[in-house]
Amino acid sequence: MLNPYALRALAACSMLLLTPAFAQAQTPNTPIRPDAVVFFTDLKDGAVIPPKLTLKFGASNFEVVPAAVKKANSGHHHLLIDSPVPPLGEPIPSDPGHLHFGRGQTEAELVLAPGPHTLQLLLGDHDHVPHNPPIMSAVIRVTVSDKATAPGRTASLPDSEVYFIGLPNGSVVPQNLTVRFGLRNMGVAPAGVVKAGTGHHHLIIDRPAPALGEPIASDPNHLHFGRGETEKKITLAPGRHTLQLVLGDQDHIPHDPPVMSQRIEVRVVRPHRQRRW
Known about the structure:
This protein has about 280 residues and is mainly β. The protein has 2 domains: about 35-145, Immunoglobulins (Immunoglobulin-like, Sandwich), CATH 2.60.40.10; about 160-270, Sandwich (Immunoglobulin-like). Helices cover about 10% and strands about 35% of the residues. It has one helix at about 5-25, and strands at about 35-40, 50, 50-60, 65, 75-80, 100, 105-110, 115-125, 140-145, 160-165, 170-175, 175-185, 185-190, 200-205, 220-225, 230-235, 240-250, 265-270. The termini are far apart.
């Protein structure tokens, strides 16, 4: 018969043997760039909103992809309604308080009962598990009212104009070029800043002018300059491309009337290589 000391030693050895197997069974959270950000593009904390509203999800420094797509530095949106952040090492629940957008959607039509609510965005990986580090928006508090209306467009100033500096229609340009933005009769202010007679630039590449009553999309064809930038170095593939500037208000919505440049076409050429003799 084993003495108590032998039994304790056997138990300790068993734990050492089991621990690595248990550790291997744990699925680590998918890594992602620490500067990745999700946010509501058209909704602020304390807003009074109508019962039926279209929410727009902003994304920065990562790629939005459908669920089940396993790709580095990517994920899909989840909307938490009146719910705390779920356990970070498990799949995000799917219920009325945890809405999944597994097709890679960046907006959703939401219907809420009158009264106060909380909303928060949380990014999930291919298995609906939050990343490492977790990427989530701030919790915003809204009040739903039958009397509320969707926000209207911000007025632009008379004779305001946005234009490209030194880039006429039909230009032949290199693949890497710096595009400079000009603006007359209005001022430049960062996104989120509510100030009459101001806005921030958006560069539309190979796409038509955006819808006027909605926030401008945020993707490789719709570049936002929400810090108030007035130039941008871009890289384009060889061939023909269209470029257009659109001024957006504090919520990324075009003004009324809209302030947008002429839609120009440029031809991108590869750099010439020197011949070797």
